[in-house]
From TrEMBL:
Alphabetical UniProt keywords: Cytoplasm
Listed GO MF terms: guanyl-nucleotide exchange factor activity; translation initiation factor activity; translation initiation factor binding
Gene3D superfamilies referenced in this protein's UniProt entry, alphabetically: 1.25.40.180, Hexapeptide repeat proteins, Spore Coat Polysaccharide Biosynthesis Protein SpsA, Chain A
Protein name, per record: Translation initiation factor eIF2B subunit epsilon
CDD domains with a match to the protein in the record: eIF-2B_epsilon_N, W2_eIF2B_epsilon
Location of the protein in the cell: Cytoplasm, Cytosol
Gene Ontology terms: cellular component: cytosol; eukaryotic translation initiation factor 2B complex
Keyword Cytoplasm: yes
Domain W2: 462-621
């Protein structure tokens, strides 16, 4: 509990508010026993990632607003401070409690009544995992407020292409902004029956330049002016942040309040665990270090191929486990099959158990021969009898108030049927994804996949490909000019790749093309070209890894050469020779590529001397 007299407000202190409850029961039955903020994410409580993000982002004082299971959160904070958690060293934590709150809006109204905040503050919805530096966004917000006295909130979004697993369907939005990123229109597409957008004519009268954005992922982070809390207090129908946004836009002339958008780019990452799909996405993005330096403390023995294994858990040699996160001290029997699932700590899985696309809570026991498949959640302490088959079910260990005979599966296993309509029940099922393709094309190493047979003019949408190529050139140019580490540039490129949903072939092709374009901007000779290529060697090594990537590289050289025929042709032979001598291109890959060229084309004539030399060198050997 906070002591109001102990809280001293300083002029420049950076404050944040974290609402710890999600109010929608999307993680039941597990959250019946554990608060959502303490859900294990890669075997570490979710709240720990949120607090570490705020600490690294420059926040000095955080108000943690809790409405349920408060004692568990207090105990966790107490133990973390005693253990000198990184975030506890220079950031004060105040736990605010109000068990009467039933919505996000209620929490902010209660916070306003307490009178603890006097200036701008960072507002986080539950489950935020990010590495964003908040101070520049806060500074930008203050600058906007000086120009626009009505500006009350800046909402943080990240680019995310359609189909990216981290972009939840429930958060799909269309946003219209002016040239200052002032929000003119905001609509969640899941609320539209026919998915057609009807734009008010008024938004085009407010500005001579309007941009429509649909490739966005909500980071569930906002910078708020001091007037945000009183607005919630004055409008009791504002129950969510979406209600707040909708209300301000509909009544902008009356309320005189405006909304702004901030788009994060490059290696910055903004994610939020708002449902099981995002839980899965954020888990793998954390494992692949998207949120660096916010990374889980995984040792070599915690990683087994594409799985994360907790401490004290031993995986038998005959186990078939793919793309799973397994908690601490889990006992695994013989001949088990686990795929795209989460097994939390202290569970026991006996022989011949199969689990896929499901979530198993802490301290569960699954007897021999059982199958837990396709979007099933077992709450903490559930005990499943032998040869049981569960599909699309929510199972808890305690008997619910209303329980029919067919819903009793065992002494500690009861089928949960929330008192809601069928559609709302279905929304609480995990809906996990088969992550095979995502893992095969992860940041740690791109490999061959089905998209090898795609042409460069297919998926993704052409505009997104152009935007990706532009961002790659920007990253490489800035890296070369500022002498940045290539590892950081790779992180930026991969972040852009996932933001625009770019295929592996497109990444390889556009990275090589971008490096060549940097030379063609100022073709000052082969010495500069050599310096450029040598500097980017770690990037070339990262992306040109196999025969398919070599063909992507050669395709990029061919494409750039054909579109820049006015330049001297000797640079083409130089680049081919350099890639060959540095072992980025094999003799076989060049020969195969050369045989498929149009022999009558000018480009084919330009590279013919090199191909001939390569053939003669091979014959001499």
């Amino acid at each position: 509990m906070y002591n109001k007299n102990e809280i001293i407000h300083k002029g420049n202190i950076v404050q944040a508010v974290v609402v710890a409850d999600e109010f929608e029961d999307k993680f039941i039955p597990i959250t019946n026993e554990v608060p959502m903020s303490l859900l294990p994410l890669l075997n570490k409580p979710l709240l720990d990632y949120t607090l570490e993000f705020l600490y690294l982002g420059g926040v000095e004082e955080t108000f943690l607003f809790c409405c349920s299971q408060v004692d568990m959160i207090k105990e966790y904070i107490r133990k973390s401070i005693e253990a000198s958690a990184a975030w506890s060293l220079n950031m004060k934590i105040h736990i605010l409690v109000s068990e009467s709150c039933r919505s996000f809006g209620d929490c902010l109204r209660d916070l306003d009544a307490k009178g603890l905040l006097r200036g701008d503050f960072i507002l986080l919805e539950p489950g935020v995992v990010s590495n964003i530096n908040l101070r520049p966004i806060l500074k930008k917000h203050k600058e906007v407020v000086k120009k626009d006295k009505g500006a009350v909130i800046t909402i943080v979004y990240q680019k995310a292409g359609v189909g990216q697993i981290g972009r939840s369907a429930e958060d799909d939005i269309v946003v219209a902004v002016d040239h200052n990123n002032r929000v003119l229109y905001h609509k969640k597409t899941r609320l539209l029956e026919d998915k057609r957008i009807k734009l008010p004519v008024e938004i085009f009268l407010l500005s001579d330049e309007v941009s429509m954005l649909h490739n966005l992922k909500d980071a569930h982070i906002a910078v708020c002016s001091s007037s945000v809390l009183p607005i919630f207090s004055d409008n009791f129908d504002f129950q969510t942040r979406d209600d707040f946004i909708k209300g301000l836009l509909m009544n902008e002339e009356i309320m005189g309040s405006t909304i702004y958008l901030h788009l994060i780019r490059g290696s910055q990452y903004g994610g939020a665990v708002t449902n099981w799909q995002n839980y899965q996405a954020v888990s793998w993005e954390l494992k692949d270090r998207w949120a660096y330096p916010l990374v889980p403390s995984l040792k070599e023995n915690n990683l087994l191929k594409d799985n994360v294994i907790g401490n004290g858990t031993i995986v038998p040699h005959d186990a078939n486990i793919s793309r799973c996160v397994i908690g601490n001290n889990v006992v695994l029997g013989k001949n088990i099959n686990l795929e795209d699932s989460f097994i939390m700590s202290n569970c026991k899985l006996e022989d011949n158990v199969t689990i896929n696309l499901s979530v198993i809570g802490n301290s569960c026991t699954i007897r021999k021969g059982s199958k837990i498949i396709e979007n099933t959640v077992l709450g903490n302490g559930v005990n499943i009898d032998q040869n049981t088959i569960l599909k699309n079910q929510l199972i808890q260990a305690t008997k619910p108030d209303f329980c029919e005979k067919e819903d009793i599966l065992g002494q500690y296993a009861f089928r949960l049927k929330p008192d809601e309509d069928e559609d709302e029940i279905l929304q609480k099922l995990p809906r996990l994804h088969n992550m095979k393709e995502s893992i095969e094309t992860s940041d740690d190493g791109f490999s061959d996949s089905d998209d090898e047979n795609l042409s460069y003019t297919q998926s993704p949408v052409l505009d997104d490909t152009k935007l990706f190529f532009t961002e790659v050139i920007d990253s490489l140019t800035r890296g070369f000019e500022d002498d940045l580490q290539c590892d950081n540039l790779i992180l930026e490129i991969n972040s852009s790749r996932y933001a625009y949903n770019i295929s592996v072939k497109e990444v390889n092709f556009n990275v090589i093309k971008a490096i060549l374009h940097m030379y063609l901007r100022q073709p000052t000779g082969q010495r500069y070209f050599s310096q450029l290529l040598s500097y980017f060697s770690p990037i070339l090594k990262n992306y040109i890894r196999n025969e398919s990537a070599m063909q992507d590289c050669l395709q990029a050289i061919e494409d750039v050469a054909i579109t820049n025929e006015e330049l001297k042709e000797n640079w083409i032979v130089f680049i081919l020779n350099w890639f060959y001598n540095e072992n980025y291109l094999s003799e076989e890959s060049i020969s195969n590529w050369g045989r498929n060229l149009d022999q009558s084309a000018k480009f084919s004539v330009q590279v013919k001397p090199f191909l001939k030399w390569l053939e003669e060198a091979d014959e001499e050997e």
